Amino acid sequence: MDADGRDAMVRGQAASRRRRVLVLGAGLAGLAASEALIRHFGSQVEVSVLEGRQCAGGRVGSFQDPKMNMTVDYCQHVAMGCCANFLDLMRRCDLEAHWDVCSSLRFASRDFSNRLVRTWKWLPAPLHQLPILWRLPFVSIRNRFQIQIALWKIMRWSGSDCSDGVTAQNWLLAQGQSRDSIELFWDVFACSALGETTDNISFASLRHLFVDGFVSHRDASDLWIPRAPLSEIFGVELVTHLRSLGVQMEFGSFVERIDQHQAGFRIVTKSGDAYEADHVISAVPWHQVGKLTETITDLRGLKAAADLQTSSITGIHLWFDRPLGDWSHLISVGTATQWIFRPVWRSRPMVESASHQLDASHYYYQVVISGSQHWKHLSNDELQKIVLEEIRELSPSCRDARLVCSRVVTDPRAVIVCHPDVDKSRPPARTALPRFHLAGDWTATGWPSTMEGAVISGRNAVASLARQEGWDFSNGYAQPKQGWVAKMLVR
Ligand SMILES: Cc1cc2nc3c(=O)[nH]c(=O)nc-3n(C[C@H](O)[C@H](O)[C@H](O)COP(=O)(O)OP(=O)(O)OC[C@H]3O[C@@H](n4cnc5c(N)ncnc54)[C@H](O)[C@@H]3O)c2cc1C
Question: Whose CA is nearest to atom 31 of ligand 1?
């Protein structure tokens, strides 16, 4: 046998030893699982991703607005400094430069002009957060003291006491928090980060938000805001990176059924293509997984995932004829409007085009309303009208702004709700079938439905696969940073 023949034989033997892994769904969970698989076990696996749509990203995606001829995200996404695994993925895939880091929050309400609140990075966590509470004009002095005491109790609350089915609101009321503190402080943060107000989320999830997101480290509450469309970051750049590592990406491959086949699986897509795999990582959403697996007796329990309670998020895309202010974000308190973002990289001064057609150079803003199911009795036009009135009240410079174009986009199943019993319904990555693994922000990650939760879920699925194969994945996760004072204070 000549050298070429020997090489081919060696490659053939290596390939035959390789495990064929099919990842179903190219949302962030599926992409994170593929990255972890190829990085840790590149010589032992062949990884293919089957995605139903023509592009990757799932909920972290964008669309082309036909009127403004502009790529717009379905909804503004932000990460926080505490999202260790998400940021680790961005770093590893050279995508960090696509994010701006913002250490200050700008709050506004009808009764007070907007105020920028910076954390004191020169103090150790959690003391660096003092200005957030003490500089919020819409929280009374009395309520600030109350909130401070509750924050202390949250830090000192033993983690193991949190899973007793208590809603965050009941816990806060039991600690003597006033209705005002709940509405103007706790609900503002809970709704932004967890998609629901404190009456419908567990105390455990509220504690997680404040301990991990605000208390643990000086950088934990930094906002990471994308500086490019989500479709570019995840749909183009992340996919290009994964392809360069050897991941096969198949788009327009909507999986219709999965059957057990010999020791592995046979997957059939809507267009009739069939794939065989030793392992499957399902990274499709909770409302899809049951349909895919209904022929497999051991996985029938997954059907129940479709009953997970969900919360909707609405993005109101607004194009004005002038800037509304010199800020890039506003957190609005006591209004339907929760956040207003101005993606600066997208907005340019208005230029009258020759054809008098609207072009993408108008001032673009996006209003985000989490938990927008509470407004479902209103039509899109009615909700937009309320939001526009609020914007005009929030800042005098907004009053004369003329709306050029608008669009309301609601995802009714944006995130799952962290209600007190949710953890009983979120399955782990490992299933009754040793070679079938689950990923997705809805699985048991210890995190709410977020980009961080999705990335952790992808890594959990790889950990499950590695355990089954006897491979070492002990260094597969990024650990969140914790400051030394926080280490002493948080129980
Ligand atoms: C409006 C909105 C705002 C949000 N804001 C934030 C935020 O600011 N910060 C944050 O951290 N998180 C935010 N999130 C949550 C975040 O987007 C999600 O947690 C995360 O993207 C979930 O990723 P995933 O991969 O688990 O699921 P998905 O993104 O839903 O991916 C699932 C993929 O599976 C594919 N698929 C489904 N069925 C099939 C099938 N049968 N065959 C093949 N493919 C299939 C889908 O097309 C999709 O690409 C927001 C979500 C929404 C909707």
Answer: 27
